[in-house]
Design a protein that fits this description.
Blueprint: H1 2-27, H2 34-57, H3 62-76, H4 79-91, H5 95-135
Helix pairs in contact: 1-2, 1-3, 2-3, 2-5, 4-5
Length: about 140
């Protein structure tokens, strides 16, 4: 059953990424790969929040959390596209743009992961505080 849930999450994650990419293709005319950057930053934030809060709260069964994290977010984000786009920028002479993209992706991923962690910790703290108040 876990394989099915992860696979189902993967289908929806890949479709979400594809649809975002298609919508940007119609309006984004610049060589900078903004869709992939945004997708990966959102994924970093969501996965960090998911691990920090949702898995500890035990709102959903472990299989569902794994399906969301490994399946949906795993298929939504894309390190391989980031790598190919970075090389493509270099090969087409956009050296500075490539460096900006690589740095924004790496540093931005760390920052958004930290923000997701902080939000998860804050939400967990508030949940525990409310549970303690309700128990008294």
């Amino acid at each position: 059953m876990l394989y099915f849930i992860v696979g189902l999450g993967g289908i929806f994650g890949a479709l979400t990424r594809y649809l975002i990419g298609i919508s940007f293709t119609q309006t984004w005319e610049y060589p900078f790969p903004l869709p992939t950057l945004l997708i990966n930053l959102i994924g970093c934030f969501l996965l960090s929040w998911l691990i920090t809060y949702l898995s500890r709260r035990k709102i959903f069964p472990h299989e569902v959390v794994t399906g969301i994290g490994t399946g949906y977010i795993g298929a939504f984000t894309t390190f391989s596209t980031f790598s190919v786009e970075s090389i493509s920028l270099i090969k087409t002479g956009y050296y500075s743009l490539s460096l900006v993209y690589i740095l924004l992706s790496l540093l931005g991923g760390l920052v958004t992961s930290w923000l997701g962690y902080q939000l998860g910790e804050r939400m967990m703290f508030n949940y525990k505080l409310k549970a303690k108040e309700d128990a008294e």
